[in-house]
Structure formats: structure tokens, C-alpha cells
Description:
heterodimer, B: mainly beta, 3-stranded antiparallel sheet, 38% strand
Amino acid sequence: MSLNGKGAVTGIGETQYMRGSPKSAFRLQIEASLKAIEDAGLTPKDIDGIIPIGITGAPAEAFATNFGIEDLRFSAVAPLGGASGIASVQAAVAAIAAGICNHVLIPSGRNVTSGARAGVRIHQMPQFHLVTEFEYPLGAIAPAQLYAPMARRHMELYGTSSRQFAEVAVAMREHAVMHGNAVMKKPITIEDHQNSRMIADPFRLLDCSLESDGGAALVISAAERVRDMRQPGVVIAGIAEGHPDSPSSITQRPDMTRLGIAKAAPRAFAMAGVSPAEIQVAEIYDCFTYIVICQLEDMGFCKKGEGGAFVENGRLRLGGGLPTNTHGGLLSQAHMLGMNHVVELVRQLRGQGGATQVEGAEIGLATGYGDLGDGAMVIMRRA
Amino acid sequence: MATTDKPLPHETEDSQPYWAKAKGGVLAIQRCADCGRLRHYPRLVCDNCHSLEADWIDASGRAVLHSWTVAHHAFHPGFAGDVPYVLATVELEEGPRALGILDCPADAGLKPGMAVTARFEQRADGASELHFAPA
Ligand SMILES: [Zn+2]
């Protein structure tokens, strides 16, 4: 059974993204969830499946308790870091297609001011105990330091340049400024990127995503329900997750320049029956600029090694060949573990993209990346 | 320079022989006792034949540079006095890779394939720190 056309995103919700929110991560999750449920035209008691994002966050039961859900039929956790959102959508569609439940809530929320930063979190997770035992004591602490050798290897093999990384950062910032709900509000230039301080060579400050507070949530329902729902339907056409070789250690990975999404993308494209050339808008997980370039290659938008040239000349900007991260992404909107990418894709395909709407967008994709190279990808189309 | 507040390795039953050898300055690699596959970092089970039996070999310490990063920002206060430092991913002569601190300036014109040799720095806090130096 293919999951193509079985599920739809019927509700999306987001809080304001900011730094220094006085609200707890759980409150931000609840607020975003209530918005998503209302957006779908449902009430919280209609939710019968919950997949919370973040393995250290509130479990499904905490949501069921607060919402008074009497018969929660499905709960799961997808521990793929920034790929968890889309992996959770896959689990939701599979559960709905199997008849287990009807409306699955996927809530996420973060408060990095009071909670854990992304970098520290890795070393608390059991699957990374080897990295924590052998790499952390040497001063390989943060994701920037763990991922930088992948980017350096790519630069050495293919001549990819820091100025090409800058192209990604500049495009994301441009979209964030236009979008409105974004932490970063001032445009940047290639030179601003080149002059920003080095963090973990080759990553400069403007290669790195934000740490920010907020909440984002989705409601996933059976595709045949979309005509009864409040909003225009956005159907899930292709979806897959993929894990890289040596998933728990980048150091030991045979090909450092190949991510889990290289395995997921062919599955998702085949399920949807579309090719990269047909994608009109892309929301690509961008914890670091290089990760966007690598995913573009791994998804087949260009050959391995050609991603740097691919992003040049404004290709990722609105009006370019592949408008990407029309919300500003993790680099300039907010770090919402990629849930903001899924929300933005739905908004685009509904035609509710506002100032950054890609005209006539009917088919697009979102990706997730996390936890040393896990990948997930979803292709959606307007119903 | 205070090193006492750097994070320490927390050895496990699987890795205890590695740290014991490191104390003596030797880089040890775990080997499947059944199929001979080498694995680093040490693990409970062989990913090739799934044998639970393992022994250890001493690595020669000869390796080539695979990739690297230069840490300019200290993400942990214990390394504030060390930046910039080079974290090198190297391919050991025996096959597996290892991560270590590369003893060279941050602007040393590094290239993949560059020959390096391993050594251990015994930290005052008791940790054995894997280093590599250009050969
Ligand atoms: Zn074996």
C-alpha cells in the first residue's frame, strides 16, 4: 500500500517566534496546538493521535490530560532530531491509513532561554553515547563542530566555497524580512556573511541557525476528510525517512558528504510520482548553510559536488528557479526543529503565503535533518 | 591553564580496555574475535557477523587526514583557553577513523591525505586525550 494521497495536513498553528519568551516550552506547544486544531475546524477532543516532537519534552499523555481526550488511540515518538517533524507526519499518515485513528496532532515547542540548547541535547541522548564518550572530552561539543568536518570534506573534494554558503544565508534572510513572523529582521549581504566571526571553521556565525523560542503544530487527517475541513486541502503525496550510514557517528561515516535524505528522497519522489524539476517551492532544513547544499544534491536537484554552484545567482530566492525557505528557515525565521518548514509549505500550497507566496504553487517539498544525519522528506500538493 | 573543568570520558564495560591502553599511550582498536572486523568506537556487538566476542589490537598510530574543523568558539568553558584548536578526523592505517586534536596551527594549510601520527596527552584531570601530529 502506498501512502500517496492517504493523508492531508488539515491544520497548522504557530506562535510568534522570538528570543527570550517568558512562556514554557509546554505552554508554547499547547498554544500552537490549539491554533492548529482550530485551523482544522476541530476541537481538541477530536484529536485521537498524538506524536510529540522532542524526546525530552512532554509525552502524549500530557496533551491528552490537558485537552481532556478520553480515547487516545495512537501515540508515538520519532527521535530524529530536526527530521522528527516529517518522520512524525509519516507515522501519522501510516496510522490513519491503517484505520487506527482519525486526527493526529504533532506539537512542538521550545524555550531555549530556560530549556536545553540543541547542542547540549545531543550528549544527553543514549544513541550518541559513543560520541559523548570519545569526542565530547576532546572539545567536539556542539553540532557546529560535529558537522563542520562534513562541510570541510565537501569543500576539499568539490571546491565548494564559503561564498556559496553565503548565498544560502542571504536568500533565507531576505525571505525572513519579507515574511513578518521571524526573529531576524535586517537584510544581510554576502559581505556581511564573509565578515561574520568564525565559529567552527568553515562555519561562520551567519552559517549557523538561530536559537529561538516558539511553538509550531500540525493536524494530520485522512485525505478524504479535506473537503469537510475549514481550510483548503493540502495532501501528502510522497513521504519517507532515511538514516545515514554510521548513524551515531559522523567520524566513522564512510561518505561524510551523504546524508540520510539520500535514501529517503528517491522513495518520496517515487511515491509521489514526481521529479525534482516539478517542485515549485522547497522548505529545506537549514541548521547550517552547508546542510541545504548537501540535501539539494542528495535529493537529486543536482549532482554530488554541484550544490555550491546550484545555489548561486539567487536560485533559492523568490523569483529564482527553486524558491526555498520562504519563511526564512532556521537560519533567519526561527529554530523550530523543522516544524516551521512544514507549516510554511502548507501555507504556500494553500495560497496563504502572504508577502513570500510563490505564485501558483501547487506542489512542493519540505525536508528535515537531524541528529548527525537523519533525514526525512515530504512532498505535498494542493488538493 | 586550568583543564580541570573539561568534560571527562565516562568509560563503559565495552570501552574500558581502550582507556586502559590509552593511559599507556597506546591507541587500541576493538576487533571481532570471530570475523576479524575492526571497529571504532568500541561496541557491544560486531555489525558484520553479530558476534558478541571481541579482542583488541594496538594500532600503529599512522594515519592520514580525512577532514577537520577549527574550533574558534568555545562551546564549553573548559576549552576557552584552547581556541583556536583543530579537531581532526583521520583514517587510521588499520581502516577505522578516529577523532583527535591536531597539533598544528589553525592556518597550517591542511589537506586531506596528509600523514599524521597518534599520541596521547595525559591530562591533569586524568583524561587521556588523543592527539595527532603531522608526520
Ligand atoms: Zn564479526
